[in-house]
Amino acid sequence: MKQHKVQYPILVTPNNCIDKEHGLFEHHAITVDPKQALLRIDKFLMDRLPNTTRNKIQLAMENHFIVVNQQPAKPSYKVKPHDVIKVVLPTPPRLTEVVPEPIPLDILYEDEALLIVNKSAGMVVHPAYNNWTGTLANALVYHFAQLPTQMNNEGRPGLVHRIDKDTSGLLVVAKTEASMIALAKQFYDHSIERTYYALVWGEPTEAPGTVDIPIGRSPKDRRVMTTFPDAAVGKRAVTHYQSIKKLRYVSLIKCNLETGRTHQIRTHMKHIGHPIFNDAVYGGNQILKGQRFSKYRAFVENCFKLMPRQALHAYSLGFVHPTTRQPMCFEAPLPTDFQQVLKKWEQYIQWT
Predict the structure, then answer these.
(1) Which residue in the list 42, 83, 164, 337 is annotated as catalytic?
(2) Domains of the chain by range and CATH?
(3) How many C-beta atoms lie closer than 10 Å to residue 47's C-beta?
(4) pTM to 2 decimal places
(5) CB–CB of 180/174 below 8 Å?
(6) Cβ atoms within 10 A of the Cβ of 141, count?
(7) Least confident residue range of 5-14, 208-217, 236-245
(8) Dist. CA 144–CA 158, nearest whole Å
């Protein structure tokens, strides 16, 4: 479900619920499975519509933008087998076409099959809700013609994997269908070597160590990932880590991914009690170590301002070249904001 702002009190009726002449567009049509048990419609739709929340679904129902069997749905309605649910909004659905934009790229390597990009923090990898422009994908289609797209992955030309918006570092981009297939297979087989640097709160006692616990979307907030001891619920996720530098209140660690789940390092570090520094989603934007006297608090807050994102960087990427079959390895040094915060912590420890 595209999370458009629902603020027009338009009554959806059987005669105009998908009538573009009246300014309404059908965004989703769902026929309920014959074996579906009775379930409140908001909970039902949360499991089936990407990038949405219960609040947005309820707001859409209040404005009559969700209809069941051609009738406006009520928040208390429970879906039944064979129900036909439609989401209609006064704005047309986003197209999967990516608009070319002249955004500079930091390309570390390029040949006929692929390129290696060093993504800056703050850049979204591909268009999605609230970020339809200014993404890496927009830049790629401007600089390169006819990039391939994986099946069922429209809107992500050339992209074989992704890193979070506020994570900096390396991405490999496929330039041909053959290279995309070969690289995607390596990611699927977990044979890609990926190393991240992270600044985390505290000093992990078991370092080097391994976090091997499944990850899945939180049932409380689907935008957030969480760990699940029950492997039947989450997807297997394995992160190997080791301490590079211990700074009393924080540590610089190196993480190697055996799997590549969404928010994997961020979720695993929180799970072992060492959230990534200034990670607002997973609690790292709070002072978690050290006595909270005024000078120390001011120091940490200055670090937060200097690096207003999670301290996570995709440092290296290793794989077998899809054409030459030769091993390739690339590295990207820590970006300026990361280096500056690390230096401030080193100096602070020396002074205290």
Answers:
(1) 164
(2) 20-89 (3.10.290.10), 95-189 (3.30.2350.10), 190-324+334-352 (3.30.2350.10)
(3) 9
(4) 0.74
(5) yes
(6) 19
(7) 5-14
(8) 9
